[in-house]
Design a protein that fits this description.
Distance between the termini: 80 Å
Strand content: 5-15%
Strand order of the largest sheet: 4-3-5
Largest sheet: 3 strands, parallel
Radius of gyration: 26 Å
Shape: globular
Number of helices: 9
Number of strands: 5
Structural class: mainly alpha
Length: 248
Amino acid sequence: MKYKSNGAKNPRLLVLKLLLLLFGCLVGLVLAEVGLRVAERVKSRDREAFSEKFLLKDPKLQSRIAPNAPGHDANGFRNDAVPAKAEIVTLGDSQTWGINGDRSEAWPQMLGKISKRTVYNMGIGGYGPLQYWALTDKALTLSPKVIVIGIYLGNDLYDAYSLCYGSDVYSDLREPGASGDLLCNTIAPRAAALWEEEKNFQHDFGRGPNALWLSGHTAVGRFLVRYGWWPCSSDIWFEASKAWAKAH
């Protein structure tokens, strides 16, 4: 009588099954990574509006987003549509535009949900106080009860100075008889050097195929962090920014 071996007692067959299982898991992860990256690209299409393709030159604003650019309304602002009136209009830079978040997650849109009022977001990345001032007349055409200006102290004061003294459009706002240090931008070179240092710091932070690194460098990791299913409570970009802030 011949003995017929089954899979459990055949080491080669068991190894083959394990290899097929690992291969299947690997293929699944690759497909999940590709699918999530595509989904991220679709969700972040609003950012395409800041490409040269959709940026228009403007004498007062320096640049503005073209009407109906991806994720933007007929005025070139990040809203579903342009209302006839708005109870609240918000002005600001990328913090108000809603950097690193979906359009529905920007604070003006969240303010609208919480307050149950009509909020129109006129924030644009890269803008500063002089652009907010220049946009006020347009904001008033919506007959708002309140105009909220989101000041970002990280660079807004500098933005006001650099545009005022760097563009003759705002020459009437300059200090009378300004000369010397006011007309010489000593901040820009230092800011550029510090920004380059910060980028290098973030690029090298947590380097290596570990849980923290994977949390920010893979779409699967970012997805799992977002829903609280990853070993790390936050992604590497938040941790890198926090470490940079503490170091400086």
